Amino acid sequence: MAANNDTIEQFNKYVMHSYGRYDVVMDKGEHETATDENGKEYIDFGSGIGTNSLGYCNDEWVEAICSQAHKIQHTSNYYYTKVQADFAKELCETTGYSKMFFGNSGAEANECAIKIARKYSFDKYGKGRHNIITLVNSFHGRTLCTLSATGQDVFHNYFFPFVDGFINVEANNIDDLRAKLDDTVCAVMFEYIQGEGGVMQLDQAFVDEIFKLCAEKDVLTIADEVQTGVGRTGKFLCGEKYGHKADLTTLAKGLAGGVPIGVCLADEKCADVFTPGTHGSTFGGNPICCAGGLAVLKEVNSNGFLEEVAKKGDYIRNNLLKIPEVESVSGIGLMIGVKLKTKKAADVVKKALENGLLLLTAKEKVRLLPPLTITYEEIDKGLSIIKDILN
Ligand SMILES: *Cc1c(COP(=O)(O)O)cnc(C)c1O
User: What is the rounded CA–CA span in Å between residue 337 and residue 367?
Assistant: First the structure.
């Protein structure tokens, strides 16, 4: 215990207190299990936070990252590197997009999409068509612009003034969408499944309507797949589940297996909106991160991998629904929200931590984002801990 307290005390002395943290000091990880400073093990049903898509320290991923670090760790984006070119080609071929932009996080990926949408519209139609519709209960990031885009009032405090030009529409309310999608709007931005908002899926009919109206009015669609993307739902992009491809799609969290990356994918229509000097990022496309990303793409694109993700998701869902305390289960694939009848999600997560299982919350729900590579053995171990707590 002593070592733990030392670290926590030192950390809190020198690091700003912007998170409500648990009193656990993580030390190492292997496969789907993390180990703290005291040697206590935790099965991780959260993949860090949707980031460690191949679990902890996957062999091929470690090898890819280490050999890239030995070769070249970074260079200015005024030069080219092969690993960036290879990653971009692989990602575009996987998703069917024309081009991509490299950033370092989900917020940066979304910021990029917002800038592209506004410039696309400005280039074509001039001023006054800069508004972007986002959904109530959405989450798009922590920068001032992406906070402004986020459709939750709790995030719109302290940091005034926020960025203008975001209009909120109620998720799944087609009338509200029709009423607000006027000729001041250049884009509609949405998560197919609102992650932080409580693992809330959009209705197929609502998504269909977004794409129909946007196509009619030359308004861009922006799918924030920072959480739903990279195989999480059993398809590479959650949009495939809905049968739609947005003009712009953003990816981050799990894309490079736990090292920072964020990309904005663009189809032909808006792939060449940026010209030299209009956007950039010092670390965007960091070679080590691209090497990690290539290892993730190789694994996720391997034969039968995504079908397995879907199957594991169904398996977890079916088992959760057998627990009397579980009211309902939402989400797709390995993105799972659990609504409880009487217990508080935060209390369950705390108890699970004590019992050796890492869980997440999303609003009033318990949220599961297990590594895509999780085995049935580990799933069963985790589920039995959940059962013990809920029964
Ligand atoms: C996590 C998340 C973000 C923000 O990503 P960061 O990497 O923290 O900037 C944006 N959108 C969605 C849907 C997310 O889940």
Answer: 5
CA distances from 108 to 251, 296, 353 (A): 10, 20, 31
Handedness of CA 178, 179, 180, 186 (dihedral sign): positive
Residue 236's region, left for phi above 0, alpha for psi from -120 to 50, else beta, is alpha
> Please, are residues 364 and 358 in contact by the beta-carbon 8 Å criterion?
no
Among 196, 199, 202, say which to mutate for ligand 1: greatest number of ligand atoms within 8 Å of CB: 196
Residue 3 pLDDT level (bands cut at 50, 70, 90): low
In angstroms, how far apart are the furthest CA atoms of the chain? 64
The pLDDT confidence band at residue 4, using thresholds 50, 70 and 90, is low
**DSSP annotation string for 269-281:** GGTT---TTSS--
Report d(CA 390, CA 371) in Å as an integer. 23
CA–CA separation, 232 vs 129, rounded Å?
A: 34
Find where tokens 């009211």 sit. 327
- The span from the CA of 336 to the CA of 43, in Å, is 16
Mutate to test the pocket of ligand 1, among 51, 226, 248, 263 (most ligand atoms within 8 A of CB): 226
Atom of ligand 1 nearest to the CA of 252: 7
Q: Which two tokens stand for residue 384?
A: 């039995």
Single-letter amino acid, residue 134:
T
- Between the alpha carbon of residue 168 and those of residues 150, 188, 264, the distances in Å are 9, 10, 22
Atom of ligand 1 nearest to the CA of 194: 13
pLDDT digits (tens, 9 = 90+) for 307-341: 999 999 999 999 999 999 999 999 999 999 999 99
Is the pTM higher than 0.90? The answer reads yes
Cα distance between residue 187 and residue 189, in whole Å: 6
Tokens found for residue 374: 């999780």
pLDDT one-digit tens code per residue, 170-187 = 999 999 999 999 999 999
Q: Are strands 357-358 and 41-44 parallel, antiparallel or unpaired?
A: parallel
Ligand 1 pocket residues where CB is under 6 Å: 105-107, 110, 139-141, 191, 195-196, 224, 226-227, 252-253
Where is 169: in which H helix or E strand? Answer: strand 166-169
